[in-house]
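Tutorial sheet, problem 5. The two components below are modelled jointly, 612 residues in total.
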Amino acid sequence: MNKIILFKNFNEIAECWFRQRTKHFSKQKTLVIGLIMIFGLIFMAIFAPYITPYDPVEVNLRNNLLPPSWEHPFGTDNLGRDVFTRVIYATRIDLLAGFLVVGISMTIGLLIGIIAGYYSGKMDKILVGMIDTFLALPDIILALVIVSSLGPGIYNAIVSLSLFGWVKYARVSRSLTLSVKEKEFIEAIKAIGASDFYIITRHIVPNIIAPILTLAALHIGHAILSLAALGFLGLGVQPPMPEWGAMLNEGRAFLRVGWWLSVFPGLMIMTTVLAFNLLSDGLRDIFDPRVREEVIK
Amino acid sequence: MTLLSIQNLRVHFLTEDGIVKAVNDVDLVIDEGDTLGLIGETGCGKTVLGLSILRLLPKNARIEGKILYRGKDLLKISEEEMRKIRGKEIAMIFQNALTSLNPVLTIGTQLSEPFELHHGLKKKNAIQKVIEMLKLVQIPSPSERVREYPHEFSGGMRQRAMIAMGLACKPFLIIADEPTKGLDVTIQAQIIDLMRELTKSSMSSMLLITHDLSLATELCDNIAVMYAGEIIEYGSIKELFKNPKHPYTQGLLDSHPSRGLKPMHGISPSLINLPEGCKFHPRCALAMKVCKNKRPQMVEIEKKHFVRCFLYDYD
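Model answer (structure tokens):
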């Protein structure tokens, strides 16, 4: 009798345990898939010369506008360049530029946000005013204006996107800092003689970094999309360098005779943005304690 | 020798609802190696007094008076100098150990901070010191425990960790703000024993802020009773418990279970709207006419036993 009950209990426990693990995974799936996709993209970017035998910029007019085939899986463009090769090489530029935009924006935003939140008072009012002003501006249009006045090019595109990208980080990190700095442990750390710099770097940043990273993952996708938009308008990477947005634009004129010129770069943009959005979703699930509780239940 | 002497300390907070008069004309002296208990009800300004010594009050606080630490006025020195005193010479043990530890850092990382800040130790060496400290406060298997987070510690262990952090740099003065709050009685007893041992062996002075009379009797040499931001009675522990003079002190002692659990009438006044004259007169059964108008002065009725009440003020 006892044995049976024990056994039954054991079964229940095992089932419960199993369900917990699988549920956990099913919620984490977004993160895992996103990560796999991103690693795939990074792999492609790094090993581009080993993946494809062609050169991304070499013109070969004899082979122009070939449809997808075994030799040219994504076809060739109007100048006879292999579209697959160009899409892969473009990953390098787009990913790097995306990471750069996010890195610069995050650094500036965190700095301004934490300073505003930590030193409340006049400093806070001035910085919040600045943040609100930037939020009121239409960012992509102004980025356009800035790039066209600075002159087209990838560096100017990165600068102008970062110029508006930091605002979100500043906003979020300020409000997070405001709530963290009132916590008792900050007072306790002051009581052992820590300076403001020490408190900010060692105690505030680790406490607010999780939501900031979630935001950053989302922002990378957004930044790549914006870069592609600038490229599409001819303001980003200049030909003959391959970039997805610019390739979309180049393919536009040949849409009737060669759909593959635009479709594959477009699909790449979509995949990349999707990958980072999945990553961001997954990160939020991990970092947000409320969601995490649901995951464990 | 006098270690800390507080003179005419007044702390007021400017708030939207009015001026909160948390500490009013407080004089206190702590000698070296002495333990002074500051007892009083919740919200009578005890914690504010403790925080003002370390200058950790919020920005809306207005502080007047003097806090002399070894002859130096802590209210006048620069923030830089103050930072060197905090944690190294004067340390504070906070009342709520869970919220006073950073949840995202390990115990080892946090406890090594005093060593890094004041002795310039690198993390690796500091961790060794932390393990020694945790051993000292009797946390089992300290070398594994340093890698754990505050939420993995039990309440008593967290409080021990807080004590270890406070004592890390062997401070001359420890301000302990209700160190046994929220702990069950057996753990309280352990913490009390531990603190007594540690302060005796390190010859530190202590300012013990508490509303727990039994804790005060266990640890203190002298007691100051605080009511509505004022010290109303001061004396040695034996004298005060045997022979309480102020009606408030008598009421406080009588409300203790061991003395019959007789509650005091009324509630303590709001610190924004303090009564005129003696702050205790609306609740006092022995109140006279003079209590309503005039503020009583501290009178020494016996050697080192002061009381602020007109019953003993014969002038």
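Marking note: Chain A has a mean pLDDT of 85. Full credit if you identified this.
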